[in-house]
Amino acid sequence: MGRPRSMHVSVDPRGELSTCNFVLKALLSAGCAIRFERLDAPSHSLGMAISSGGRRIWIDARDGGGMDSAPAEWADVYAKVNIEPGIVDVVPLGPLFGLQLWSLPAGYLKLVALVRGGAHPRKALAHLRFQGITRLPIEDYVPGSSEPDFVFLRSRFWTGKHSAVNASRARFLRSLEGMDLRIDAEFASERIDLATFLEHTRRSAVVFNAPAVHQCLGWKLGEFLALGKAIISVPLNRELPMPLVHGEHIHFIADDVDAMREAVALITRDDAYRRRLEVGARRWFDEVLSPVSVAQRVLGAELRAEP
Of the spans 40-54, 103-117, 157-171, which averages the highest pLDDT? Predict the structure, then answer.
């Protein structure tokens, strides 16, 4: 298959560029020439509007699993990471995560294009700083060598109305108690820098995944797949572009301490099974979440490979 042909795509910069920047990376990786300009989409605060080849595309950035009615009426293509099973006419994007598109300070040169396209200067600057300072380029998301006796977990402790998301992670922490492993796992009150998180995650024999706010697919799931990790996960409640198969791409378990402990013991002791999960996770990422694959789902038949 040849390289995708270049095409012009308009992106409204008034949207949630920080949340949707994996899609921007997908368009750039597919050879698209992006033009930032104001579009006629009815909402810009909870998604990102795209126009390509006369088609209107809406990227829904919300954590909840439903559709937003006004953008759904506007769009010819409605794409979303977190979509409830059974909802039709929605392109499931899979567990995307934030990336660095432009390093700083060179990335600040994009500020003029964003503002000329209609973005508020402060919001555009915040987006550029977020992606340039706190995120890393996709080239940094590569597998490493896991250590069979080491388990790493850092998780945010949620308070208030989203505190229920802590329960599964707390059970996983309890499941590690007393195991003959080197454990570096806790709820963290402060974030560690992303490079350190990725380094420790690569070394970890297993990683743990559970749905996040509003049962959404958290960014960590996509990161774990990109890093080629042996993922222990409680059941997911969102539609995926392709199934994550137990024992091949991921290890699904019941959401209880005993099941978690059994899964950790299995994967840390069985090198062949751990390696199978690691290879399968990265293969799923390459086939489903690689930027060009995401661009093909968003743009559909418009994005074809040259012979």
Answer: 103-117
